[in-house]
Amino acid sequence: MTPSPEPVETPQTIDELQQQHRGYELRLDELKQRPWLSPEEEIEEKRLKKLKLHLKDQIAQLQRASA
Questions:
Q1: Cα 51 to Cα 1, 2, 6, 26, 45, distances in angstroms
Q2: Contact 56, 32 (CB under 8 A)
Q3: 4 falls in which pLDDT band (50, 70, 90)?
Q4: What residues have CB less than 8 Å from 41, skipping those under 6 apart?
């Protein structure tokens, strides 16, 4: 039995990345509405902020490449 090939990551479009970015923004807005966050929610908030920033960088890189 041969090992299955690893999945190839397909490049995402700017629109797809912007949609993900908006999703992270919405979740962060939900968390901001709470009077306090549980430790798990604080971790989620930090993770979402990092992911959002990473997506912003990817979007900017794609925009520069397509210009």
A1: 38, 35, 24, 13, 10
A2: no
A3: very low
A4: 31, 34
Contact status, residue 60 vs residue 17, Cβ threshold 8 Å: no
Token pair belonging to 60: 């900017």
pTM (2 decimals)? 0.77
CA distance 24 to 9: 21
- Distant-in-sequence, close-in-space partners of 42: CB < 8 Å, separation ≥ 6: none
The per-residue pLDDT for range 37-64, each reduced to its tens digit, is 999 999 999 999 999 999 999 999 999 9
DSSP string across 4-53: PPPPPPPPPPHHHHHHHHHHHHHHHHHHHTSSS--HHHHHHHHHHHHHHH
